[in-house]
Fold:
Amino acid sequence: MLLALCHLQVSGQTLTNAVPSSSLPDAPDQEMLPVAQPEPPPATGIPVQWAADNQEWKGNVLTLTGRGEFHYRDYILHADKVIYDRTTTEVQAEGNVQVAGGPNDVLINADHGDMRLNMHTARFYKVNGSQGVRSAGRSIVYSTANPFLFSGRVLIQTGEGSYRIVDGTMTNCRLPKPDWQLLSRSIELTNGEASTRNSIFEFLGIPLFYLPYLRHPAEDTGRESGILIPVLSNSSIKGFVVGEQIYWVISRSMDAVVGAEYYSKRGWAPNGDFRYKGPGLDHLTVRWNALLDRGVEQPVGSTLAAASASRQADEELLALKGHDFSRAESAAKSPGALAPANPQPSALVPAPVAMELVNQGGVDVAADGRKDLSPETRVAGNVEFLSSYVYRLVFNDNYAQAISSEVSSNVSLTHGNNGFIPSVSLDRFQTFASATNGDEARIIHLPNLRYDVLDRPLGASPLYWSLGSSLDYLSRSEPQFHARNVGRVDFYPHLSLPLSAGGWSIVPEVALRETGYSISQDPDLTGARDGTPTIDHKGLNRTDIEAALDLRPPALERDFSLKGWNRELRHVIEPELSYRFVGGIGEQAQNVLLADTTDIATDTNELGFSLTQRFYLRPMDEKPCAPEQKSPSGECPARPREWASWQLAQKFFFDPSFGGAIIPNRRNVFDSTLDLTGVAFLTAPRNFSPLISRMRFEAVNNLRIEWDMDFDPKTGRIDSDNVFAGYSWGNTTVGIGHAMLNAVDENRGAASTIQSQQVQPFVSIGKQTNVGFNMAANAGYDFVQNSLQYAGVQAVYNWNCCGLTFGYRRFELGSIRDETQYLYSFTLANFGSVGDIRRSTSVFRDPTLPPAY
Structure:
């Protein structure tokens, strides 16, 4: 009775109720107590499928003969004969055995083997195979950046993704004849990493050397901390170089390399880098290099010019180079221009010749990073510290970096919301006038607070307003001149009225600018102090009113039919006139401390013109294209391309003295000249600026020519003439760059002329990673110094998965650096390289940089 009333629960029931069965209604659809349904037993075993020419069951044993196909999990087994025991999940395969699939794209070919499916273990004999290689029809596709190919007498699988190869080989090359392979008695593959001991490296079938231990990632994301391949090289100034680095995988998103090199002639050179990659655009990269130099012997005495480094007064506006004074300053800082080529006897030190040790070591640390705090707010920066310009000039392996005299750092916090952009930044700019320590200029903004407003409508009116404002605490120092603890406030609102009608575009603009300084300067107008100003601790307030008008008439167009070429030519002329007036500053501009482009505003009353001609070419026949590109008529219009353009521009100054801001016989750079050309030209009052010509030519496929020229009608000479040209056909690219400069310089407070003329040819055949023969060569020759400052050539031959590289580089940077480098590298694809060719020493152009022409 108790059992009937209490209704004990059993495991096969899903519901229970204590109501006695005698109260159940008659109608089945009104039952209060559902019928108990037994739960199905949990699934056991391994789900399998099979197909074969012949199938035979004997109890729980299935035998497949003929070319059978057996599926289990994500794997497919092919064999001439398969025996499967469904109670133990054991499988025996014989004859042309192949296992493929799995998360790592495993492919195993064997003579015979056996498996235990539920334990994921197996044993195969006379085996070869791969991981990370996928067959797509007759072609083979690498599904990972680190494919792993192997062969062996026995392959033992001890678990999911865990293998041991007995008496086998491993390689990244295609079998059966790999370019290189490692031979070992035992190879372990566990958790995406291959390791082996006591192995022999074999190249093109020739045993080369013995490796006591080796670990190598065998997966796409596999990174393993460890010791990298040593660096061995030779240099005429470094001597014999041996180096080693340790790679440290900090986390999934961070890693680091720390190491050092030993220069037999100079000393120890520690180096390393750190990388972090976060979500979105978040990143941080830090690179550092240093040299603990024990010194190099250099002669002292009457063989050295006493004033070889006294050029600090020549570069009075040196700090503004970072904003644009481009070619003039670049040539002034070129190594060959650091000292006179033939010093006069009066400039020599009357002392006996002797030798002394000169320390040329230093530290160079650079960091680049960004962190997005929100969709509107970010922190970004680019920071570099260089302790010695001589260290960069002598030991930097990159030619462009070695001759760069600038070190710039900036860290900023920016918030942009609907055109309102408050920001705070820390800036440090340093530029070197020569290789002498201390011959440099520094400008520091600590901090720079800005609030900018982009153009936006003024209420419901057609006017637009914008604002630029800043609050700075800055300092500037250079030899014989130091301005510290300078406060600056700048307020710069704009008001504009864009108008357009009938193809005409007219933009009148007015602005008011108020700038206050806590310290000013007194210029040296007579040259008594070699042009160096003095500090005046009185404050300075600069106020100006500005008006501008930009006028763009309708573009003139005309089409020409070139039936012989089956092309249509369109000639477009785009004229532009501009007028600008600034008043209220006057001679006060000479008393403003110069730190950046905010400080070079002057009075001006100028008229400028620009005339641009463009030539477009397109086929006359329309061709079919993708549906989304079709015109309403259903055809795909031939797209024109610009194959040539030519711009001429010049300014006329109604106020030739710029309100009295010009200092005669000096190098003057103002805001109104800076936006026209980067070459300084003002040494006296004048009405006409140089004529600016900018030409681009791309009429021939794969040919590009760029010609930039500045002609000064007052002096009757070309201030700058730069030509860049390049042509590509097949896998070959040839090009040349020519730069000529006749710019205003300053020497002891008096205007002078600085000259530079360099030519830089280059040629590349193929790419550094292409199969077969590839080559690159480039050079830089200075016609003023009559010297080959740089030359490099690199030849590469790549097999299927390895490559051999030889290179030669030559540096001749005045008396500071005279170096010859012989480079080599042997590279194993997806493995590593032995040698001293790195990104900084490669003659091939960095593929991450813009095209060379």
